[in-house]
Specification:
single chain; 13 helices; 9 strands; 54% helix
Amino acid sequence: MEIGFIGLGNMGFPIACRLLGENHDVIAFDTRRPVLERVVALGARIATSAKEVADRAETVMASLPSPGASFEVATGATGVIEGSRVKRYVELSTVGSRTAAQIHDRLAERNIVAIDSPVSGGVSGAEKGALAVMVSGPRNEFEVIRTALEAIGRPFYIGEKPGSAQTMKLANNILAANVLVATAEVMVMGVKSGLDPSVMIEVLNAGSGATSASRDKFPRAILPRTFDYGFATGLMVKDVRLYLDEAEALGVPADVAETIGRLWETAARDEGPDSDFTTVIKPLEKAAGVIVGPVGRPPSG
């Protein structure tokens, strides 16, 4: 299948690579020349703008860092909406249901189908083709792109309503944000009391306290102090804010999410929005005067 692909960041690049690996013909665009050269070396062809991608491919996918970037790429003056060949726009980014609906409405004016398709599973899932792929849009259009989506993970059809896949993604991400910061908090408490963090993780994973954080993120990026899981703190803050906006618009309680949001805002302020999101533990460690590492040593300085 010929696929235009816009956005070769931490998630977009491995997704594009998976598509190439499954023999899809990829026409790629990114504002950064080095990543374009990398994907060309793997067999992709280059476009010089989002519009050119949409001039050359009927199916255009995008993986972008913010709702604003997605809206501009989809509907801007040099965006997908101006393409002469595009029939469907597949939004892999997390933008929230409101932005998804706005993109849907603008593209519909040009008879371009908008398909929501946010993904979950992180960089590792993208590299392995093991993402959870949430899809909303016309069922027949989902079937057209199903093979391409199966190249990057497991597709779940959510429904016809524009933005419903975004709502599902935000529900997933608020839980992911919750379990990471909650696991960080209890690990700091345990280390402060004198427990061995490695043993704590083993016990949690054998018991009812196991989470995606204890099974994966702590062993891979926090206990070894590499903080290189591959997802930015600022992006998690963006997703939490989107969830809170969605909850407010629906008029539903968000007490837990609001608390989670404050903790993530603190991490973004203290560690920077470009820090790896596993650094969310660092403000908690600083407050407690410990480090959750191989020996639970106190911080220097």
